[in-house]
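Q: What does the assembly look like in three dimensions?
Context provided by user:
Components: three
Sequences:
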Amino acid sequence: MNVFSFDHFGHLFYRLNAANWFSLSAPPKDISTNGHLIDYLFNYTSYLNIFYFLLVCIGLFGFSYIYSAKRNKKAYYTYGNQKTHLIITAVIGAAVFLSIDLNITRLSNNDLLNSFWKWPDPKTEKVLKVEVMAQQWMWSFRYAGPDGEFNTKDDVVTNNDLRVPVNTKILFHLTSKDVIHSFFVPNVRLKVDTIPGRITRVWWDANTPGVYDIACAEMCGTHHYLMKAQLTVYSEEEFARWVGAAEQVAMNTNDPEDKNLQWGWKWEN
Amino acid sequence: MNEARKTQHTLAMTIALISWAMLFATLFMGYAIYRSSANVWPPMGFARISLVLPTISTILILISSWFCYQMKLDINRGQVAPAQKNLNLTLALGFAFLVTQTLLWRNMNHSGVYVSSGIFASIMHAFTWIHAAHVLAALVFLVYLYFQFKRHAGNADALWMKTENGEKFWHFLGIIWILMYFILFVF
Amino acid sequence: MSGGFNEIHQEPTTFISKYVFSFDHKVIAKQFLWYGILFLGIGGIMALLIRWTLAYPGQPFPVLGPLLFPDSAGVVPPDTYAMLFTMHGTIMIFYAITPILIGAFGNYCIPLMIGARDMAFPTLNMLSFWLALVSGLLVIVSLFTPLGAAAGGWTSYPTLSTMIGSPGSGQTLWCLAIFVLGASSTMGAVNYITTVITLRAPGMGYFDMPLTIWGLWLTAILNAIFIPVLGAGVILLTLDRVAGTTFFLAGAAATSGSGDPVLFQHVFWIFGHPEVYILILPAWGIVSDLLSFFARKPAFGAKATALAMTAVTVLSTLVYGHHMFTTQMSPLLTQSFMTLTMTISIPSAIFFANWLGTIWKGSIRFHSPMLFSLGVVFVFGLGGLTGLYLGTVTTDLYLHDTYFVVGHFHYTMAASVLLGGFAGTYFWFPKMFGKMMNECMAKIHFWGTMIPLNGIFFGMMMVGYGGMHRRIYNPFIYESLRRLIPINEMITISAILMGAFQIVFVINFIYSLCKGEKASQNPWEVGTLEWTIPSPPVHHNYDVIPTVKCGPHEFGNPKLTNGRDFQYQTEDLVV
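A: Here is the predicted structure of the complete assembly.
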């Protein structure tokens, strides 16, 4: 596949227009319930940053213009005195602390506690459990199958192909076979490292059916860039149909003696 | 030797030892993490390492430190000849320490604790190797000092800096070993 | 403890003792400068190869490509690509910035600016350079090993960097090189700290030191404390590779034992986060001084700036965990690291205010060192502020390991440090070599660096926000990233432009060295100690050790009567 056959968005004007670039670099479509929290915090931080950076620029360019040696022959002799320093330090410290530290940290903490770290409980709500095994350079996914137990004969195992139902919380437990990888789903704004010898976890839900990318975000060797999986978000009926068929196939073809297939582990909450 | 120059040397050696301490502190931090995350220690059914050889090592390095300290006092008093004697004893005990370390490694191998048999063995071998490598380097320096003592037999002042720094480094290695003894072997 | 032992060393007479195995801090500084510039060139070409691959995947690299990669008709192969970004990072951080900012400016400025005849330990100083050279050779050799150089990223996370992921000897050589360089840096640091404490000229208190020295001194302190931490990390990694230990091995692919790969990340970032400040502190110091020197006005709140830099130094040791949010540390650790990281913005804001306060109501002379210093304020502003997204846990979960991170740390570590380094080079070149650099070429160089630089690094942040992750050979196998091709192309064109304008610098440097206008003793009309002696200084710097009577930033005092608008640090303060 030659990327150069891909049309670079038409004519030169489009490519020279910075506004178009900003729209190009918008993050991919958010398909999750909680992704907007991250987008919101990003934008919030951006406004703060633009404000503070404008202050710096006004000082930098304004002073450079007004007080250039051409316009201002004689510099004003001041060290600032102890009192001004204290005031400036206190004001800037307070402004920065209140507007940035307290706010962003508070927002982020709230998001973590109320959403991202609010782990769904399979006992009380509908949760799809998936085990993920990363290895050079492939993602393997394991669904528990009808018995609800992992690493049994009826497990549905897919490679580089994750299919989930819409509007259902999906809880992933992840590990790695060889080196550290990172499970990155740009459309839900989340990533988590998969680490050999450890189990990490992440949960999200998708609210828009469609086909999306899953990437490995942590350098994992020469073919790191090829470590790509496909995420398919089905409607609930479609998912039920697919998973039912896949379970049938699994029951018929899964070989319990096959060591390579038995990479799963007992699910622990 | 000029007092200001002495201050410089003392200061620089102190900073250098802080750096070295950070290296060993990192190792101990790693040990703390491995140990606290393991359910049982030693893990994987290994037995504890017998304390006999490490204890002998500890005694050897403690005594050598004492002789090393005497050596420095002699140099400060301007007496090279007794310093030479104390240096010889330090050297002998230092080499004896290395011998007991070698025996310790052999012992560990005999009881099945090979370098490659898991994290416990890795720690026991590698940490003592790293310490022993420093001891070896220090001994090479002390041997050099031995010849310097011969050369400047009548001039303790010329030997002040090397003696002082060598002595500090030797004590430092002694302290690290005692920490290792208690943290890795006893505790 | 100032005014310590300060003997005059015999001036060397032979070529070898004068230029090769020299004890003279000025010569060692120049050795480090050449060494750094050489590696800067190598690292820069690697950057261009990386950029070319990202914008034009599958296209042969022009001119050099067919020579370097004959097997693939000039196209960078994927395994080479991994080596390129690994070695680009390693070389730029450890072999370009460190020797230039710390090795060259540290060696050159510290004794001269505090009124000393040499470093406290000239032999240690020489040894530090020669160890750095050995380390540099190891790195060069590692490029030519059978399986190629290290390819696990400059962070070398295990288990990718153990035998499981990198069987070649390149990674082992990388570990050795970093260890040897660490030894060299620690020697330098011990020397710098001792020199600043004991050899300040009589009368020079800590707050009479130029801020350049403050920056270098704090850097040396961080170096002395944290380089050994990395040293311990790479020793263990090396043992895992060659001796069969299992410190960082885990998982199904590790045949024996179970260690903990994440421990290396902790160790690496305990060192790695201070390292970021190790690199930037000298640049901050230089900029803080130069802004005052060229605004002809005392540095606003110099003491507050020095203390703010110290505060950042201290805080930098406590925040490393924000590099590891995606490894799922305990929630408590995660939240603590986020909060601690955010507090760095307070001291940073203070010295930004002081920088602007310094040029406020000044009489600014836009010589090249000043342009570069103002450039640092601009790019570090951008770099610092964009750090907020990455210190915040939730936004970091999206942005971690994307090009946004790459853009951010290049703004802070590469752009700011590079511009600061150029500012220093243009500023001290007359003192170092006794010649002036060509001002016109310098200004072309400034704009030719500054404009594409923002194109590169802002572009990187844009593609990163667009979802493009790091260290991938061909991003466009992802359908969703194809829309970023035009921006990637813009970044690459900017990079080529910026690379091309560095040729102006090299020409200027060499031309000025040979044919530059002779520099006077004090071409910039600045009052710090190094400008009270001839350019270039004599072997022992000061015939008589100067006595310091006022601060380094005495400009524009209306009571000055001698026709100058500044006074030397050796003169009594006019009141």
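Follow-up: Chain B has five helices and no strands.
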